[in-house]
Amino acid sequence: MMYCKTEEQIDSMRKSALLVSNTLAMIAVDLRPGITTLSLDQRINTFIRDHGAIPSFLNYHGYPFHSCISVNDVVVHGFPDKKELKEKDVVSIDIGVILNGWHGDHAYTFVLGDPGAAVMQLIRITKESLYKGIEQTIVGNRVGDISFAIQEHTEKKHGYGVVRELVGHGLGTSLHEDPQVPNYGKRGTGPKLKEGLVLAIEPMINLGKKEVFTDADGWTVRTKDGSISAHFEHDVCVRKDKAEILSNYQPIEAAEQKNPNLFTND
Ligand code: MF3
Ligand code: CO
């Protein structure tokens, strides 16, 4: 079932999405080598609750943390732990909240010191592919138009591995609503996009091959070939001429630029 939201509901969802953006920005301020991902997870929990929301990932199908922190070859669903982050780590942070009953769910990939041109290009292209998908998120298009745009930019143009096992999704009063939004597909196929539909679009892209496996912990998804993986996710509302991005990378990117421990493409 696909649920189109009213303007009032979209206002609520914008608040949820922006709380996630601000949580990611808070983390970006002092993300650095030497910090443990478990300490980041605790700060994420506190920040979300201080803002009157609930971290939605905790206990979701038994997920045991407040965020997913996926380092290097971990694609998504990485468990925060007591290991210290180190220079050149590629750190994807995915956060979900429920605020006044509405879900926000988005993600950003940070880099701790120069990991080399190939990895920086992966980061840049993965983020760009998210925006290529968002350009297609307009009334009258189909889900396949979003999927195709992401796959074209990543797999076709750059030979990266597009993960097949995990997909984007509708978002609302549930974390995962219809439709599924794969990062691969054919133009003009799949469900039609209607005004007010909110999608979490989230390319998960590997520097090497597309194959992944899940660790013995039942959650941590890794690349089979050990290559680095990147993940960017926005919450996007379908509109007539131009999609509306409910989440916001601006505060995150501003914090990233200011933090000398973080390496960026610009
Ligand atoms: N962004 C991910 C998703 O949409 C996060 C889910 S993690 C979980 O599926 F822990 F909640 F499962
Ligand atoms: Co998601």
Explain what this protein looks like in three dimensions.
By secondary structure, the protein is of the alpha+beta class. The chain has a single domain, classed as Alpha-Beta Complex (Creatine Amidinohydrolase), CATH 3.90.230. Helix content is 30%, strand content 23%. The chain is built from five helices and 15 strands. The chain has a five-stranded antiparallel β-sheet with strand order 8-7-9-14-15. Strand 14 and strand 15 form a beta hairpin. Helix 1 packs antiparallel against helix 2, helix 1 runs parallel beside helix 5 and helix 3 runs antiparallel to helix 4. 2-amino-4-trifluoromethylsulfanyl-butyric acid is lined by residues 57, 60-61, 63, 68, 77, 94, 96, 105, 107, 169, 200, 202, 233.
Summary, kept brief:
With 266 residues, the protein is an alpha+beta fold.
